[in-house]
Amino acid sequence: MSVFMSIPTGVLGGIAGVLQVISLLSLVLLLFKVAQFYLHRQWLLKALQQFPSPPSHWLFGHNREFQKNEELQQFLKWIDKFPCAFPRWLWGSNAFLSVYDPDYMKTILGRSDPKSIDAYGFLRPWIGNGLLLLNGQAWFQHRRMLTPAFHYDILKPYVGLMANSVQIMLDKWEKRITQDPYLELFEHVSLMTLDTIMKCAFSYQHSIQLGRNSHSYIQAVGNLSNLVFSRMRNAFYQNDVIYRMTPDGRSAHHACQIAHKHTDQVIKQRKAHLQNEIELENIRKKRHLDFLDILLCAKMENGSSLSNEDLRAEVDTFMFEGHDTTASGISWILYALAMHPKHQQSCREEIQSLLGDRAIITWDHLDQMPYTTMCIKEALRIYPPVPIVSRVLSKPITFPDGRSLPKGITVSLNFHTLHHNPKVWSNPEVFDPFRFAPGAVQHSHAFLPFSGGSRNCIGKQFAMNELKVAVALTLLRFELSPDPTRVPIPISRVVLRSLNGIYLHVKKLH
Ligand code: HEM
Ligand SMILES: *[C@@H]1O[C@H](CO)[C@@H](O)[C@H](O)[C@H]1NC(C)=O
Ligand SMILES: *[C@@H]1O[C@H](CO)[C@@H](O)[C@H](O)[C@H]1NC(C)=O
User: Fold this and answer.
1) Which of 332, 359, 361 is nearest to 469 (CA)?
2) C-alpha Rg value of the chain to the nearest Å
3) Residue ranges of the domains in the chain?
4) How many CA atoms does the CB half-sphere of 298 hold within 13 Å?
5) Cα(171) to centroid of ligand 1, in Å?
6) pTM for the full model?
7) Ligand of minimum distance to the alpha carbon of 306
8) Which family does it belong to (predicted)?
9) What atom of ligand 2 comes closest to residue 255's alpha carbon?
């Protein structure tokens, strides 16, 4: 009997022992986490002490103050009280300094701090270590390798390709509006800009606007933009292993696969093309190579210079940066012009007198539309397509007003708030293209849609050309007005998007 009894007691004792060890370990882990939280929080509080912050909760940070879809608007509400910068607490142990003053911008952009992992790291599974995410020597080498792809001799012939993509979109609009005069722009424009970057940078021969497949790429980019943003804002989603097990993590993985399928196919086709000796000779003879040629040839002439992984990362980066930013830009510019019919008409008249009825636009026209360019810039001010970027300080910094931050702090350059800062722009909410009239003076760092310094946008000229071509050709064919029942709500999701789409009333001109 006693022997019989002793077995279960032994087993129970064993289980109890294991449970004890587990709870002890959990307790130690918990204490460790609490200590880590506390120490990091104390460090942040001390590092940021020269910068007053709106009241925040010790654990939930500014969670309550910043509603998920009203972040941009919330910054503007606090700008009077905090005119240059304030610490934004995501949660108790995560804060960054949000900056929106031109002198602060100038100080930061004059240095070479790396991109912050907190903000950009979550883009890595998607766009890899391409130019946007690279730092240090590797960034420098890639930037030097790719800069020739944006030489004006290369950009010149792109104008025709851009115009062609825009006309395909406008033809689609013309058919659509016979059924419903209200169009959601963002999706149409995204397809068009994807079409453009595929033809220009990747020598793609067909128009993807007419096919079906690329819708899934555009959709994947839209999904990923939301998922990446939610992840940045969620303390529990930071760890890769945990994130992968959540429904959001699985959606992100799926969307990445769809996006990569698209870019892989582009690389494969171009590689197959280059197997052809004649084609290879043609490329060698070209004085200037396009973007994908540069990447592929860099690899072929020097096997060690660009791994397959690096190549994929650059293609993913340029596929994304090269279409989503311009889609945002064009959509919001057209929205701004719809809201301001007088300016819209002045642009239209300028373009009509420049192009006549032929509607053929070339490189030489692009610097002969000053009024339209002013309107484009003013729209980029109010609706910057890349609203926020960020850096982590690699050494201490002191701003011109004497305040300073230690190494290791993340600073977020909030271009959107800078562009709406009443200290920088009088009546910032008023659309006034004459702010950009020749001779108007601004601070060198008051207007930064393409960022500044050595890590500014490599595609700036390409983008400006595309914006001009798209706006000019659209205004020649259509009159745009807003949809008063669906006012777009700007949200920051890597690029500036609208929570509820961008709907316009589109009427054909005669
Ligand atoms: C209106 C359109 C565009 C806007 C507003 C824009 C804006 C920006 C901004 C603000 C940055 C700095 C990002 C940061 O600091 O994290 C940037 C970087 C970059 N942009 Fe653009 N961009 C546009 C179009 C394009 C296009 C068309 C391309 C490619 C063809 C492109 C390629 C890139 C790349 C590769 C970088 C990273 C550059 C580097 O770090 O060296 N962008 N862009
Ligand atoms: C995007 O998200 C929607 C809704 O969550 C989903 O139905 C769709 O399959 C996703 N598409 C991609 C390509 O991730
Ligand atoms: C390729 O380039 C790297 C650095 O750019 C260099 O170190 C290497 O020697 C080159 N290899 C060949 C085969 O030229």
Assistant:
1) 361
2) 26
3) 48-126+150-210+319-508
4) 21
5) 29
6) 0.93
7) 3
8) Belongs to the cytochrome P450 family.
9) 14
From atom 1 of ligand 2, which residue's Cα is the shortest distance away? 223
CA of 164 to the centre of ligand 2 (A): 30
Q: In the prediction, which pLDDT does 329 show?
A: 98
| Pairing assessment for the beta strands 182-184 and 495-498 based on DSSP bridges | unpaired
Q: What is the dihedral angle through the alpha carbons of 102, 108, 114, 120, rounded to the nearest 10 degrees?
A: -20
Contact 73, 417 (CB under 8 A): no
Quick one: tokens of 196? 């453009």
**9 CB near ligand 3 (under 6 Å):** no
- Write out residues with Cβ below 6 Å of ligand 2: 216, 219-220, 223, 254-255, 258
- Return the ligand 2 atom nearest residue 217 CA: 13
CB-CB contact of 404 with 396 (8 Å): yes
- Going edge to edge, which strands form the sheet with 94-99? 85-91, 94-99, 410-414, 388-392
Pick the more confident residue, 283 or 421. Answer: 421
Q: Which residues contact 434 (CB under 8 A, 6 or more apart)?
A: 374, 440
Looking at residue 114, what DSSP letter applies? P
Domain 48-126+150-210+319-508 belongs to what architecture?
A: Orthogonal Bundle (1.10)
Protein residue whose Cα sits closest to atom 11 of ligand 1? 457
Closest by CA position to 343, among listed 440, 447, 432: 432
Lowest mean pLDDT among 45-49, 150-154, 440-444, 450-454: 150-154
Segment 397-420, tens digit of pLDDT: 999 999 999 999 999 999 999 999
Helix (H) or strand (E) holding 23: helix 2-47
Rounded to the nearest angstrom, the distance between the alpha carbon of 272 and the centre of ligand 3 is: 24
Give the ligand at the shortest distance from the Cα of 463.
1
The full DSSP string for 240-292 is: HHHHHHSHHHHHHHHHHHHHHHHHHHHHHHHHHHHHSHHHHHHHHH-SS--HH
User: Is residue 329 a contact partner of residue 421, using CB atoms and an 8 Å limit?
Assistant: no
Which segment of 56-65, 108-117, 271-280, 475-484 scores lowest on mean pLDDT? Answer: 271-280
- The H-or-E segment that residue 212 falls in is none
Residue 40 token pair: 């990091």
